[in-house]
Amino acid sequence: MSNSEPDNAAVERLPTILLTGATGYVGGRLLPLLRDQPVIVKCLARNPDKLQPVAGENIRIVQGDVLDQASLATALEGVQTAYYLVHLMSGSHDFEEDDRRAAVNFAGAAEQAGVQRIIYLGGLGDDADPNLSPHLRSRHEVGEILKSSGAEVIEFRAGMVLGAGSLSYQMIKSLTDRLPVMLCPRWLTTLTQPIAIQDVLSYLLAAIDLPGTGNRIFEIGSPNVVVYGDLIREYARQQGLRRWLIFVPILTPYLSGLWLALVTPATCEVGRHLIEGLKNPTIVRDPSALQAFSIQPLGVAEAVRLAIAESESAV
To answer: Is the pLDDT of residue 134 over 60?
Structure first.
């Protein structure tokens, strides 16, 4: 018997996790951390070739599409815990309907496969707000649909994620880098509680071993409640930039989306949907995550510092 055979057998006895959204920002950052855990990770991909370079002893790439329920059966076979990090806003003409259908498909396939736990990353926002944006309303709806699977659903609700490569951070960075004087819409005065990508990943990892207590919603954010304008000012301060913000009431979400398309990597459509969500306060109203997890989230200034450092090291 070769020396590798016992190791291979040991790997096959490890618990199996499914990671969806592995080619996205959060999923792509989570995958290397999962690789170091004592688990087998299945990565769901419409195009497996994109993820083949990361395949390894405990990383398996499986073809599937959340919009095709039949394709999910193989992916979920033998899976105890599944990460649902899917968001179809960037590639859909009707992201609400597509996200709804994807969640229904996944919940049904997870129920058939006997998945025990689903870990989902959604968005902050008050469910009681009648003016909740379509983007945030859809994020909450997906969490509710996943509960129909019968699996225990751990739903994290986060606001803006601060980290190099995050679309929300790239919007702030691009605006501040390119515009010395900004005519700012009112949404830049909306209260928010952003969170560092490092803390998001810590919560997602810790959820694997969270004692089972049924479905839970955890609102996560930094210790600091700020407005979006403060994020621009903090980024400018750390970069040594002088920026002037002039607030005007005339930039509607649609016009703001067009404005962002001129100065950021985001498409106009995605920018518009994101901005529709920025009109709603995204703050932590339930602090139970701080009691359930031994994680002390970073402050906004430190999160911005780390994002800047990551951006510069990637150049």
So the answer is: yes
